[in-house]
User: What shape does this take?
Amino acid sequence: MKGYVGTIVRINLSDVRYEIEDTENYPIYDFLGGRGLGAKLLLDMTNKTTEPLSEENPLMFLTGPYTGTPGISSAFYNVTTKAPLTRTPSGSHSGGFWGPHLKRAGFDGIIVEGRADKPVYIYIEDGKVSIEDATNLWGKGVFETTDYLERKYPSAKIAAIGPAGENLVWYASIMNDKYRAVGRTGAGAVMGSKLLKAIVVKGKHRVEVADPQGLKDVFAEALKNTRVKAAKVSELGTPAMIPVTNSTGTLPTRNFQQGSYEKADNLDPKKLRYEFTKKKVACYGCPIRCSNFTEAEYEGIRVKGEGPEYETTMAFGSNIDNDDYNLLIVANALCNDYGMDTITAGDTIAFFMELYERGILTKEEVDNLDFRFGNKEIILDLLHKIAKREGVGELLSLGVREASKRIGRGSERYAIHVKGLEPPGYDPRGSVGMGLNYATSNRGACHLRAAMYVPELLYKTMDRFQIRGKHEYIRDFQNVLAVVDSMIMCKFGSRYGYLDDADTIAKALTVVTGYEYSGEEILKIGDRIWNMERLFLLREGYTHRDDTLPERFFEEPVDVGNGDKRAINKEEFHQAIKDWYRARGWDESGRPTRWKLEELGLDEYIGKF
Ligand code: SF4
Assistant: This one.
C-alpha cells in the first residue's frame, strides 16, 4: 500500500542486532499503524507478568500511512509500550518533525526490544541502522542531548529522554525536537530501563501517496475550514481554553477541590501570547501553528522554548494555586528538559498539597517543606527532586495512584486518577461527557480518547450535564479517534480541519494508500482497535469496577457556573457506562462478547482473557 515506506526495523539491544521486515507482514489492513498496530503487537508480545520496566517489554515507535504526507497536520507518530504508570498500552503521540523524518530515514516503525549493557543511542540514516555509545550523554538533559546530537548529525531529528527517564520516573516522557512530548503514561521510563538515551533519524526518502491530486482535493475544502475553526487556537494556542473552563466550573483547581480559579485572570491566554510569546511555531506541514515559543525567568532561571500548553497551565497553575506565568513557563521548561509529563507532575504535587493541608502527610514526610497550596517557592525544587527521585521526590515520582497506595491513611479519598492516570484540565462535574470519556478510556483519565469537551464546552452542541443518551456518540467518537491515532493525524488538525468524521477520513486514507476505504470500515477499524485495547486491560486484571471516577466527583458539588453547584449522579453515571458496554457489543461486566470478537475478526482472542 502507498503511504507506507514498506519496512519496519526490529532492534534487539541485548543482542546488539537488528532485522528489517516488510511492513506488509504486519496486520496493517486491520490496524493501519500507530496506536492500532501498537495495541495488536503489544498484546501479542507481552503477557500479564511482563513488567513495564523489564527488558521483556517492547518499546515501539510507529508511524501510520498518513504520517509525513503533504496532508494537514501529518506530523504525528505513536509510541506503544506497556506503561509503568497505568499498566495499559501507553498509546502516546507526539508531533514536531521526528515522525515524518523517521519515514524519511526509511522506516514505518522501530520496535526496540531487550536492554543494552551500557547507555546507547540508535542512529538511522537512509535505511542504515547503528547502535552508538551514549555514555557521555547519560545524565544530561533533553536540551543538551538534542543540541549535541544535532551538532553531530546536521539536519537529523532527535527523540531523547532526560534524567527522569534514566531514573525511571513512572511518568517520564520521550521528548522529540526538544519540546514535543510523548507524554502521560511513562514511555520515557521504559526507554530509560533499556539504557536507550536517544534515537536519531535522518534521510531523504519521500512518502509516496496513491493519488496526490486527490489528496489536494480532499484538503482544499478542509484547509478553508481550518482557517475558520482554528482561529483562536492559532492565535493563542491551547491555553485559549482557560476562560472557557474557568467560566464553566471545569478548570481543576487545588487538586480538583474547585472547578474555577479566582485568580484565573492572571492566567489569561492573551497575557501568555502577548507578554511571553516570542513567535508562533508549527509542526511539520501544519497551517494551524498552535504552539507558542515563550521566554520567561523565575528565581534566576531563564528559559525559552515551546509551551506551556493548556493542560500544563492547569496542572502548574490553578491545580497547585499558582497564577504566575513566569513560574509556570519555567516549570514547563524544566519538565521538558528532565523529560517528564507535566500533567501528572503537577497533579501529583497538587495531591500531596491536599494531603499536607489535611494533616495526612506531615512536614517531616515532605522534606520539611511548606507544602500548602499556593507556595510557589517549593515547585522548582520539587521538580529537581522528582527527576532525581530524591527525598519526597521518590514518592512523587510514582504518580497519584501508587503514591496513595504507599501512603495509605485515607489518602485514597483524595487520590484523583482513573486507572492510574491523573485527569487533565476538565473537571467532569461541569462536563459529564468528559467524565464518561475518562471512565471508559482504555488508558485512564485521558482527554484525547473522546474529546467530549469539544461538543460540551466549545461548540455547546450537547448538554454538558446530561448523563444518559451519549453512549453511541462516545463510542463512535472513540472509534474515529482511534483511527486518527493510527493513520496518524494530529487531533487538532483532525478537529479544526473537519477531518473528524468517518467518511472524510475514509476519503483521505483512500487517496493516501490507494486502498478503497468506506466510512463504515473506518468505524470498524476503530472498533477493532478499541476492543484490542480492552482485551489488554482485561488481561492485566482491570474490571468493570475500574470504569468509574474518583468519589470526589460524585460526592462534592462544585460551582459549574453562575452559582449552580453540581456533583455527578453516581447511579445514573454507572447506568450510562452499562449503556456504553451495550453499544460496544460487550456483556454486562464490560467484556467483549464472542460475536463482537468474531465480527471484528478477532476470533483468536475468544475466551482468552
Ligand atoms: S495543530 Fe498544533 S500540535 Fe497539531 S500538528 Fe498543528 S502545530 Fe502541531
